[in-house]
Amino acid sequence: MKEIVVISGKGGTGKTSIVASFAALANNAVLADCDVDAADLHLVLEPDVKQTHDFSGGKLASVITEKCIGCGRCEEVCNFDAALFDGPANDVVEKTYTIDSIACDGCGVCAHYCPVDAIEFKDAVNGQWFISNTRFGPMVHARLGIAQENSGKLVTLIRKEAKKIADEEKKNLLIVDGSPGIGCPVIASIVGADLVLAVTEPTISGQHDLDRVVELTTHFKIPTAVCVNKYDINVKIAKAIEKKALERDLKVAGKIAYDIAVTKAQIAARSIIEYSSNGLKDQIVSLWESILDILKSP
Amino acid sequence: MEISDMKIAIASGKGGTGKTTIATNLAHYTARLGQKVQYLDCDVEEPNGHIFLKPRINRSREVTVDVPQVDLEKCTGCGKCGEICQYGAIVSVKETVLTFEQLCHSCGGCMRICPADAIKPKPLNIGDIEFGKAGDVDFISGRLRIGSVRTPSLIKEVKKHIKEDRLAIIDVPPGTSCPVVEAVKGTDFVLLVTEPTPFGLNDLKLTVGLVREMNLPCAVVINRYGIGNDKVEEYCEAENIDIVLKLPDDRRIAEAYSSGKMMVNELPEFKNHFVDLTKAIKAS
Question: Which residues in chain A have Cβ-Cβ distances shorter than 8 Å to B228?
Answer without folding.
Answer: 263, 266-267
